[in-house]
Fold this protein.
Amino acid sequence: MRKIEAIFIIILLALSCSGTPQLAVEPTTYDLGKMMPKERANIWFTLRNPGEEILVIENVRSMCDCIIVETTPDSIPPGGVDSLMVSYIAPDSAGPDQSSLMLRTNTEPKNTKLTVTADVIKSNLEPGDSSVVIVPFQNRGMPGGNEYSLELFKYMAEHMPAGFTPLNPNEYTEAIQGDPHYTKLPIHDVARKWNNILGVRYGVFGEVRPNEGGGVDVNVMVVDGFFHLPLGRIIPNIPADKVNGTVSDTLNSILLNAREYVKQALMADLQQQWAKQRAELINKPAPEITATDVRTNKEISLSDFRGKPLVLQFFSTDCEHCEEEMDWLSNLVTNHPEIAALGISVNVGERDSVINYIKDKNLLYPVILPDEESESQLDPYYGGATPQTVIISPDGIVAQSMVGFSKNALANFEKILQAMLQPSEKAERTE
């Protein structure tokens, strides 16, 4: 009889386990080894489902602005294998770095934390450096072949603006072509690494090709060792006898106005990444979020702030630029009490570390932390990187959303918030 009971218990245990998905991740910690500041690397995490039900990938959240989620599966069948791909961008400063992302599935526990580590080595690029390496442009069908590219190279090198030092391209070119990530990563990511190693501020790349109209199309790209996106322009249909001068003038414009080109590159990149999400938010009622204030344990909802302009700040404890935005937001609510602010931590499951973090920052506005059961409320807002700022009007309509940190954008947010205030509130503030 006991033997029958034992067999029955084993069968029940097997049945209770057979209907659940499971998650196995390899690796849970990805060590990238030595990297240069701002170097970029693609990482693949292998996801397996050894369970007997479909594994659903509900969400993947980066916990910092240095990890960008590129591709992730929606689900994995029982016994199946798939991969999660992210891009990691090393921080500005040298030293060991540890960053993370959170994978939420329909398993128990729901959240799995994945970690990326790197040893960021010191850059040989000095602030104020203005050295330039021009790599001879690729020739895509222009007459004269290499001689054409060499003539263009010489012209640009001889007509550099004052204060910019052209260097011999041989060592730089050989280093890039010999890099293990050459052809595997975008050329600007590989070039930026060697900018820092060799102490080159600007690397110049390009391509020339004839077009059907008899002119020449040129693509000019400048890689700044201090900036993670390429700067450049596409110049279509240049008259054949004007190519050298036009390309040289374009390069000089980029070098002399690098800050403006940086702003343009940042804006274009952000717009491309978040355009879809913003379209689903802007000028629509703000989806509700309800969670507990980590300091008071009081339940807070977005609707509690109705009647005031509201700033939502999504942050994580390992986000480099979140601290700067927190300073701005604390100053804002101090100087303008008629404007409300709410911090939202994305460090789900790490309550103690969040409490210690905000105590250290002495924030002057409430901070909520959703739990595993309620974190899906963040999905309509949170784009997967921090800091992220959302502006909500007094009547509960989303007016603006931005991912990343920009002092100019924050100044614009202040103007938007001021415009939302009632005339009486403005008068009270000025009296």
Summary: The chain has three domains: 2-120, 131-256, 279-424. Residues 131-256 form a domain with the Rossmann fold fold (CATH 3.40.50.10070).
